[in-house]
């Protein structure tokens, strides 16, 4: 799908457990990403590396035990 122009993405309250490296790679214009209130325990290295315009990242209310560097 063509989501290149997407600037805001709300994935809160979706029971996500892991953020994989390739999940957001095509969202090059994303400015704000809301992942709050999921079940995220692991964020893979470089998961947000392609998000050059990202200014706000919401991760509150997740039981993160392992948080690798964002790259």
> Which range best describes the helical content: under 10%, 10-25%, 25-40%, 40-55%, 55-70% or over 70%?
under 10%
- Low-confidence blocks of residues: none
Total count of helical runs of at least 4 residues: 0
Radius of gyration: 11 Å
**Spatial ordering of strands, largest sheet:** 1-3-5
H-E order: EEEEEE
Largest sheet: 3 strands, parallel
Strand proportion: 15-25%
* Amino- and carboxy-terminal Cα gap: 25 Å
Mean pLDDT: 90
Helix-strand makeup class: mainly beta
Count of DSSP strands = 6
The geometry reads as globular
Task: Write structural notes for this entry.
This protein is mainly β. It has strands at 8-10, 18-19, 32-34, 42-43, 56-58, 66-67. The mean pLDDT is 90. The chain has a 3-stranded parallel sheet, with no helix packed on it. Helix content is 0%, strand content 21%.
Secondary structure blueprint with pairings:
Elements: E1 8-10, E2 18-19, E3 32-34, E4 42-43, E5 56-58, E6 66-67
Parallel strand pairs: 1-3, 2-4, 3-5, 4-6
């Amino acid at each position: 799908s063509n989501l290149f122009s997407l600037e805001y993405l709300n994935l809160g309250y979706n029971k996500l457990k892991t953020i994989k490296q390739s999940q957001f790679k095509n969202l090059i214009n994303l400015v704000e990403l809301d992942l709050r209130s999921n079940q995220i325990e692991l964020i893979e290295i470089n998961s947000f590396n392609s998000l050059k315009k990202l200014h706000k990242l919401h991760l509150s209310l997740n039981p993160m035990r392992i948080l690798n560097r964002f790259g």
